[in-house]
Write a structure and sequence with these properties.
201 residues, mainly beta, 12-stranded parallel β-sheet, 3-stranded parallel β-sheet, 1 helix, Quinolone resistance protein, 5peptide_repeat, repeat
């Protein structure tokens, strides 16, 4: 049975499965990070180094991870809601069934990450990096939110759906564009970046 723990100070090592932490201060972990079945509501994380951590079935709402380092981490069935993820580094991480909703994620880094059923909803992804990411079926969906300047260089886009996102400019490798799902307005942006002039008939 889920337990609510409120306004406590505890280390990430002390966090227990099937509990909800509200308004808590989470201090630095001294062990390998393994968090499962936990909900964090408006908690403050003192730690910024989460490298190699394992997060399973977690919900994190209203927390700040500015420029936090999640390099090589694993996230399964997790959800970020209303979080500050600006500059957070998830290079070479694995995301499966992960949703990021209503977050600020400018400069988010998912370079060389493996993404399977990853979804961004109403999240700001301006200048974010998906360079050389491996995106596997059912892929990556960005619905709502601004992602101008997002970088998909060296990433196959066949399993990517950006049709409900907003952007004026994307960085991508033309040879890997095939299969990208976009709307008609975005198609004009993509065509323009490929040097195509769209004119009235």
């Amino acid at each position: 049975m889920a337990v609510m723990i409120e306004r406590q100070i505890l280390s990430l090592d002390e966090v227990q499965e099937d509990q909800t932490y509200s308004g808590c201060t989470i201090t630095v972990s001294n062990q390998d990070i393994q968090v499962s079945g936990v909900t964090f509501l408006n908690c403050t994380f003192a730690q910024t180094d989460f490298r190699g951590g394992e997060w399973l079935d977690c919900t994190i709402r209203g927390s700040r991870f500015l420029t936090a380092d999640f390099t090589g981490s694993v996230m399964y069935r997790c959800r970020f809601e209303g979080c500050q993820l600006m500059g957070a580094d998830f290079t070479r991480s694995t995301w499966q069934d992960v949703t990021v909703a209503g977050c600020q994620a400018t400069y988010l880094i998912l370079a060389e990450a493996k993404l399977k059923n990853a979804r961004f909803e109403d999240t700001k992804l301006t200048e974010s990096s998906f360079q050389a990411a491996s995106i596997v079926k059912p892929g990556l969906v960005v619905a709502g939110g601004e992602m101008t300047g997002a970088d998909f260089s060296d990433t196959k886009l066949a399993q990517v759906n950006l049709a409900k996102a907003r952007f004026d400019r994307l960085i991508f490798t033309p040879a890997l564009l095939s299969g990208l799902k976009i709307n008609q307005w975005q198609a004009a942006v993509i065509a323009g970046s490929l040097g195509v002039d769209i004119v009235d008939a």
